[in-house]
Amino acid sequence: GLLISELTMRGVLRTNGKLLAIVQAPDNKTYTVHPGDALYDGTVKVVANDAVIFLQRVDDPLSPVKQREIRKTLRTTEENR
Questions:
Q1: In terms of C-beta distances under 8 Å and separation of at least 24 residues, what long-range contacts does 17-24 make, across chains too?
Q2: Which pLDDT belongs to residue 80?
Q3: What pLDDT is recorded for position 63?
Q4: Distance in angstroms (rounded) separating the CA atoms of residues 12 and 20
Q5: Which of 22, 32, 49, 51 is surrounded by the fewest CB atoms within 10 Å?
Q6: What are the per-10-residue average pLDDT scores of the chain (81 residues)?
Q7: Nearest-angstrom CA–CA distance, 68 and 25
Q8: What is the sign, positive or negative, of the torsion defined by CA atoms of 59, 54, 34, 13?
Q9: Phi, psi at residue 65, to the nearest 5°?
Q10: Is residue 33 a contact partner of residue 25, using CB atoms and an 8 Å limit?
Q11: How far is residue 59's CA from residue 81's CA, in Å, rounded to a whole number?
Q12: Whether 7 contacts 23, CB under 8 Å
């Protein structure tokens, strides 16, 4: 499975009116993910024009929070400099 913390967002596709995110794993393989897709430690919640939001499971038994939102965005031109 893919860990959310290891994914890098590479792009967004629009097909049939729906948005899909292109993400890259540490092994340099790319994957397309849809809202609702399950990953190793969470799910894809939303794919937007410039970001993807994941719901990550928190496996710490002492934590009162059982899920957290992780937002991964596309890099802007200023960040690439």
A1: 19/47, 19/48, 19/49, 20/47, 21/47, 21/52, 23/52, 23/72
A2: 46
A3: 84
A4: 6
A5: 49
A6: 94 94 96 96 96 93 90 70 48
A7: 20
A8: negative
A9: -90, 130
A10: no
A11: 37
A12: yes
Residue 76 is predicted with a pLDDT of 55
pTM: 0.85
Integer Cα distance of 76 and 81 in angstroms: 9
Which residues are CB-contacts of 56 (< 8 A; sequence separation ≥ 6)?
A: 4, 5, 41, 42, 67, 68, 69, 70
**CA proximity to 12, closest of 2, 23, 1:** 23
Beta bridge partners of 18: 15
Query: What is residue 79's predicted lDDT score, i.e. its pLDDT?
Result: 52
24, 30 contact by CB (below 8 A):
yes
